[in-house]
Amino acid sequence: MKTKLKPKFLLHLFLFISSFLFSCLSFGSLTLNLGVVHKRGLDKSLTLVSEVYSREEVTVGQRKSISLNHGMVLTIKLNFLEPSEVYGPSKRIVVTANLNLKSGEIFQPKSSETFSVGLGEIKTVTYEKGKDQQIEISIQPKII
Q: Which one, out of 10, 40, 77, 100, has a CA that is 20 to 30 A from the CA of 134?
């Protein structure tokens, strides 16, 4: 015996599935404006500066590796802060960032490697290696 689904039920099912997919797609990616300023020779009073600016699309919850100058790789992972009581994602993003050299060495940040930043805000994190090198990374997340 065949049962026929009512068109109204199919319409509601279609709307539910499409709204679920839309919310997953629209809140699943962020644009990340990155600025990297690499200063070398600080201990010798001779400062060599190189700057790199880029815009990266990052999927929330997944790690992304970004190649920088001099063989450095910035690995970042973004997550929304715990959902607020309003509909949609939180306005704060939790960022976990690691900066690795080509040789396998790790630059250590002055503060924690995990920090939070608001959507549209610019957060600057400073990494140091010894007294002669400093890297400032500015991060600005925006919803696509």
A: 77
